[in-house]
Amino acid sequence: MRIGAIEAGGTKFVCGIGNERGEIRDSISFATEHPEITLDKVISYFKDKQVDAIGIGSFGPIDIRHGSPTYGYVTTTPKPGWENYDFLGTLRREFDVPYGWDTDVNAAAFGEATWGAAKGLSSCLYYTIGTGIGIGVYSEGKLVHGLVHPEGGHVLPRRHPNDDFAGICPYHGDCLEGMAAGPAIEARWTLKGHELPVDHPAWEIEAFYLAQSITGAILLNSPEKVILGGGVMQQSQLFPLIRDAVKENLNGYVSASEILDHIDEYIVPPGLGQQAGLCGALALGLAALRTTK
Ligand code: ADP
Ligand code: ZN
């Protein structure tokens, strides 16, 4: 079985081929440019690969509502050329195979639930904290879509007492993404995340905002695992800071031993590491193939 996988990020695209065990055999990566240039590269990669299905985890917002006239489109992005772009339709015209189509973070959540840190569980949340903040929601064995799709990065947090940074989200200013994504860290401290020392006060503030979101998400969704990925989470000192702050926020209210006694195994990095996104797309492709059989 040969499944095509596309991790479509706002900064870079990764395309690969994998199998039903989640093993990626081949992959390439290139910068995200104007959609025609980018999709040309995707199409030429898959041209001779004879895939049985293709899974796509895409940056968004995207239209994932079955039956919608713009199903498969990237919708309101400010990225040049991508607004209202028929991503899925462009691929369908080239390759007549089943497609899995979802957000990048939903794909990663699904990949983690299939082969990674949430394997065997029926729920998890997948956060990416990178250029933006996105949250994929997997619940009762299914990805959550609803009205459009969850946009957990734009929830409004309570402010840290020592933080007067205005926030940089173009829509909301000081939403979670505007306060805690990689570019917000850089704008607040005038240094990139990887340039800040591990004991810099930036990390306690970063953990404060992320823990607040995770606390709310635990209370709302009751996930069995919370997985934190993305470039900013390369700062592994954030994990203990976040775990402690989540426990403090919850204050014993959620009486699950996963949180009270084993939080180190509850809030974790992706089990699939850097391949979480691509494996997630692979899992979507595989699921699409199975539902058409
Ligand atoms: P993207 O979100 O575009 O897919 P990343 O997840 O790598 O890509 O996120 C990029 C953001 O993460 C940038 O703002 C960058 O400064 C930040 N970042 C990347 N690596 C690190 C690191 N090691 N430590 C802290 N921040 C990082
Ligand atoms: Zn926002």
**Share of helix, binned:** 25-40%
CATH class of the largest domain: Alpha Beta
SSE string, helices as H and strands as E:
EEEHEEEHEHEEEHHHEHHEH
Return residue spans where pLDDT drops below 50 for at least 5 consecutive residues.
none
In CATH terms, what is the architecture of the largest domain?
2-Layer Sandwich
Assess the beta-strand content as a share of residues.
15-25%
Total tally of structural domains: 2
Cα radius of gyration in angstroms = 19 Å
Number of helices: 9
Strand order of the largest sheet: 3-2-1-4-7
Question: Major beta sheet, specifics?
Answer: 5 strands, mixed
Number of strands: 12
- Give the terminus-to-terminus CA distance: 13 Å
How much is the average pLDDT? 97
Summary of the model, kept short:
This protein is of the alpha/beta class and 293 residues long. The chain folds into 2 domains: 3-103 and 274-292, ATPase, nucleotide binding domain (Nucleotidyltransferase, domain 5, 2-Layer Sandwich), CATH 3.30.420.40; 117-269, ATPase, nucleotide binding domain (Nucleotidyltransferase, domain 5, 2-Layer Sandwich), CATH 3.30.420. The chain contains 9 helices and 12 strands.
